[in-house]
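Quick one, tokens below. Sequence please?
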């Protein structure tokens, strides 16, 4: 590798080096609780913007097992900016609920490194390595409230079900290898026409996709989502529901974009379309009955996975671009929503029920306004970024001839408006005389405000962002 090649994989080296640095600081410095958060946040922001500014620099490394540049760097940017925002909203939260340990940030960095490996993979072995690194960190982070029974239960459920999903993915990879005699994505695409009719290959691909639908929380592989999101620390829930979901989608995109180019997408469209419809309708309908805001956002996450699957099912360029745009804006609006929840949440569990938000618009107008912005965007109401995320995936379905899929997506979106607006109604149209004592940390508010700015910016100038993504697909 030349020095120029090393610059292309510098994002991976920065995050890997930061993990080693924070581990050393945690072991030997008495001020580690103050140093580690800042080191981690600065490293993530630095890596994010370096990746974005060097996206034109393409390269393939390590015997064609990893790539850099273009869409890979776009994912690097989103992973790191999302992780940095989660760290900002966690800064005061983990102190408030008494889980302020340096390992928290180290595990987030390690999970981000796993995500980056997934996005840069040109071989399914690298996808698996990245997936396991990310998943193991998530299992630990889910149970980080070690004295909380719900957190422990959530971690155990997530670990057991996640292990089964991993087994399904590995078995699928084994069948793909048996058909193609390689796990290289380039080799799979090169031999696609000859293995397209092979039952072993098709079953292997099906199992691979099924395993990742668990990771993106799509129906019917969603059963872990409500309990895990509710029991995990709120900052961890924000991380899993956004950048974790994005990493899984990046794995599907790097496989399905070349398959679509080769004309093999139609084999998988029926399966993806059915998953999409079931996820959208199930997530939206069940969310209507939720009284806990984290469970409501969990079922909402299932519905949003369904919207994103529309883009994959469409199998065209607009579908791929729409998915990347959608997962980006979803990351910011969901991190923002969980950020507001983390600011309000108390150690005793106050402000986890939607009823606790009664009159919040009068008691904490700033926080209520920010939460309302994120709810409007999640509901897909213009002019926020969430509207355009749905718009582009629906357009991709129509262009591919699946108008019925877009119409069902619109129906699910209309249903979802109810439970998002219910939060706003509770905040502004119901009164409560209880005093809200909020220790507004500057770091958490900064994270929420940055997320809000991204949501608004992606709604104000979606065309520019779509053009950028299109240039890198």
């Amino acid at each position: 590798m030349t020095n120029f090649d090393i610059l292309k994989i510098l994002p991976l080296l920065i995050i890997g080096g930061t993990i080693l640095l924070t581990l050393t600081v945690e072991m030997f410095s008495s001020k580690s609780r103050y140093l580690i958060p800042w080191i981690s946040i600065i490293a993530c922001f630095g890596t994010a913007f370096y990746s974005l500014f060097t996206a034109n620099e393409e390269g393939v490394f390590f015997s064609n097992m990893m790539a850099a540049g273009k869409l890979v760097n776009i994912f690097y940017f989103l992973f790191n900016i999302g992780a940095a925002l989660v760290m900002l909203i966690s800064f005061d939260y983990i102190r408030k609920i008494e889980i302020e340990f340096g390992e928290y940030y180290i595990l987030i960095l390690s999970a981000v490194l796993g995500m980056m490996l997934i996005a840069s993979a040109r071989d399914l072995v690298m996808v698996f390595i990245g997936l396991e690194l990310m998943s193991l960190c998530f299992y630990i982070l889910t149970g980080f409230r070690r004295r909380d029974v719900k957190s422990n239960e959530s971690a155990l459920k997530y670990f057991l079900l996640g292990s089964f999903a991993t087994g399904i993915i590995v078995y699928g990879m084994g069948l793909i290898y048996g058909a193609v005699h390689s796990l290289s994505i380039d080799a799979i695409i090169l031999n696609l026409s000859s293995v397209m009719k092979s039952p072993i290959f098709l079953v292997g691909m099906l199992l691979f996709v099924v395993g990742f639908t668990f990771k993106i929380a799509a129906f019917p592989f969603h059963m872990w989502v409500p309990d895990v999101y509710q029991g995990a620390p709120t900052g961890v829930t924000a991380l899993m529901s956004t950048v974790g979901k994005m990493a899984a989608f990046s794995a599907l995109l790097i496989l399905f974009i070349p398959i679509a180019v080769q004309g093999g997408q139609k084999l998988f469209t029926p399966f993806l379309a059915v998953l999409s419809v079931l996820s959208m309708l199930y997530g939206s309908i069940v969310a209507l009955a939720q009284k806990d805001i984290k469970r409501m956002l969990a079922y909402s996450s299932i519905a949003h996975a369904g919207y994103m699957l529309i883009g994959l099912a469409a199998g065209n360029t607009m579908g791929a671009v729409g998915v990347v745009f959608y997962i980006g804006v979803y990351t910011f609006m969901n991190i923002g929503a969980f950020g507001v929840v983390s600011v309000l949440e108390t150690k005793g569990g106050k402000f986890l029920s939607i009823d606790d938000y009664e009159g919040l618009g009068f008691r904490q107008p700033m926080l209520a306004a920010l939460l309302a912005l994120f709810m409007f965007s999640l509901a897909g109401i213009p002019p926020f970024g969430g509207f355009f995320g749905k718009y582009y995936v629906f357009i991709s379905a129509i262009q591919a001839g699946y108008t019925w899929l877009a119409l069902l997506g619109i129906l699910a979106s209309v249903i979802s408006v109810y439970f998002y607006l219910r939060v706003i109604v509770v905040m502004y149209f119901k009164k409560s005389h209880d005093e809200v004592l909020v220790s507004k940390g500057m770091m958490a508010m900064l994270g929420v405000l940055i997320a809000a700015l991204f949501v608004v910016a992606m709604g104000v100038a979606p065309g520019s962002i779509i053009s950028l993504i299109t240039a890198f697909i």
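The radius of gyration is 21 Å. Residues 268-473 form one domain.
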